[in-house]
Structure formats: structure tokens, C-alpha cells
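Sanity check

After download, print the first record. It should look like this:
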Amino acid sequence: MKVIVNIDGGSRGNPGPAAAAMVITDEEGKVMATKSKFLGPKMTNNFAEWSALEGAVMALIYLSGEHDGLEAEVLADSELVVRQFNREYKIKEPSLREIAERTWESLAITPNLKITLRHVPREENKAADAAVNIELDSYMDWLNKPK
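Expected C-alpha cells:
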């Protein structure tokens, strides 16, 4: 089975309120799942992007247990995260390094899952971006609600 996963993370203020999201589609483009998560009030954009990747990998590991073999193409508009994940750039920030190590270790112990991570322009990542913004808008609405 092959799936396409668009991921995105965002922070308003950088650092600021942050969220991560993923949209999983099958080969024909049919949406199988959309998931977003609020990460906290004082997170960086890079933390949000890496969190989106880690969440996608965890979801793919689950899916790989449901199928004999799973091939996933993960698409991200963060060139930095793509290059760091593919070990083209070093990861200097300790919190990002922790996420990367967990992600790489999880993939290493899941042999029936094959993923590739590729950079795409923001215009090709609209669904994941929209899911991040819905999550952040919801947080901002809650934050600004009269108490």
C-alpha cells in the first residue's frame, strides 16, 4: 500500500502559539485522515514542523501494522526539516534533535514501513496548512473568550 502524507507546523509569533497537522491520502488523492494538534503557547515554528513529522511517522507506523508493507511519501513545505531529516543539515537545537532521534529510532524498528520525505512549495501543501490554521484559530478564539 502507498500513501501520501502532507505535513505542516506553524507558530504565530515564533515563538508563540503553535500547532502541527497531517493529511494522509491514498494514491488516488482520497483523504484517509486529517489530524491536527495544538502544541503549546510558546513554541517555535521549527518545533511545530518537526512535531508534525513525528506525528506523521507515528501514524504511519500504526498504519504499517495494519498492512503487510507500507510505502509513504511525506511532503513538507519546510526545506529545513526535510534537509535535517535526510541528514543533509545538522540539527543544533537540542529539542529538535530529541524529536529527530525519536523519529529515526521509530523508523529503524519498523522495517515494513518505507518513507521518503520531500520538500514541496507551500502552494502544494494547502490542506495541511489549513489544518494548522484551524487549530491555531481555535486556540486564539478560546484565549480571547471573555472569562
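If your output differs, re-run the checksum step. Summary of this record's structure: The chain has a mean pLDDT of 96.
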